[in-house]
Design goal:
Layout: E1 2-5, E2 8-11, E3 15-19, E4 24-26, E5 29-30, E6 38-47, E7 53-60, E8 64-66, E9 77-79, H1 93-96, E10 101-103, E11 112-121, E12 124-135, E13 139-144, E14 157-167, E15 172-175, E16 181-188, E17 195-203, E18 213-219, E19 227-232, E20 237-244, E21 260-266
Domain Ig-like: 21-116, 138-232
Protein name: Nectin-2
Organism: Puma concolor (Mountain lion)
Length: 278
């Protein structure tokens, strides 16, 4: 993005992303203009989430850098290029046209619009605004969910858990198993401004679900590609009973007529009984 006052232009990116706790640079350059244009001062302004605007950094060709605001403050801010030369004046004209600002120990409170202003003579003030966002890459894990002991039923139960911790913004979680339902919850993470996303896969217990491989897919803007986590389900399910042996050719006097009671369950059944239905 380039903004101009008369023939003077300031170039800044529309958005900059930085990792929480890390160092981020806010680029700002005064584009080449006529030889008669001189930089009088460079100022950085921060507008936070509440709409409050304050000056956080300034650079003067003779007096050097100034960081008047307590937040982020001198201990966390520095000009990357301006003022790096030695000599009576604090920087060459080329350096003064590069007002890139470095911010260390990025926090959520540092987010917002940052406006870079060049006061020039004789063209006046030119500015450019960039949006700073703080992000955090989450840590991810998936595991089977132990079904609590008790009477088995056909009510849906949680069978797998996928957790994405410490992300900013929150991660997006999906499951590959079409017969299940995801129940997601969002809670604050261990660092201020981060989030933990917890996704429980629930389904109706059955022999078809037991032993299935399912995949938890975690997406986040800090990833180059989605994270895939595989889980093998261990699902207790109530007895599934069928009777075999009848061949549609039973008659009085036939010998060796046998009916089998076929049962599948997890855990294995402890016993069975027959009745005639009378």
């Amino acid at each position: 993005m380039a903004c101009r006052a008369q023939d003077v232009q300031v170039r800044v990116p529309p958005e900059v992303r930085g990792n929480l706790g890390g160092t981020v640079q806010l680029p700002c350059h005064l584009l080449p203009s006529g030889p008669d244009v001189r930089v009088s001062q460079v100022t950085w302004l921060h507008v936070d989430a509440t709409g409050t605007s304050r000056s956080v950094a300034a650079f003067h060709p003779s007096y050097g850098p100034s960081f008047r605001s307590p937040k982020p403050g001198e201990e966390r801010l520095s000009f990357v290029t301006a003022g790096q030369s030695s000599g009576t004046r604090q920087g060459t004209e080329t350096e003064l046209r590069d007002a890139t600002l470095a911010l260390r120990g990025l926090t959520v409170e540092d987010e917002g619009n940052y406006t870079c202003e060049f006061a020039t003579f004789p063209s006046g003030t030119s500015r450019g605004t960039t949006w700073l966002r703080a992000i955090a890459q989450p840590e991810n894990a998936a595991k089977t969910e132990e079904v609590p002991p008790g009477p088995l039923s056909l009510e849906p139960v949680p069978v797998a858990r996928c957790v994405s911790r410490g992300g900013r913004p929150p991660s997006r979680i999906s499951w590959s198993y079409p017969d299940g339902k995801a129940n997601d919850s969002l809670v604050p993470g261990h660092l201020p401004g981060t989030f933990d996303v917890i996704s429980l896969l629930t389904l109706t217990p059955s022999s078809q679900a037991d032993g299935q491989n399912v995949t938890c897919k975690v997406e986040h803007e800090s990833f180059k590609e989605a994270v895939l986590l595989s889980v093998t389900l261990a699902v207790p399910y109530p007895p599934e009973v069928s009777i075999s042996g009848y061949d549609d050719n039973w008659y009085l006097g036939r010998s060796e007529a046998t009916l089998n009671c076929d049962v599948r369950s997890k855990p294995e059944p402890t016993g069975h009984s027959w009745n005639t239905g009378r």
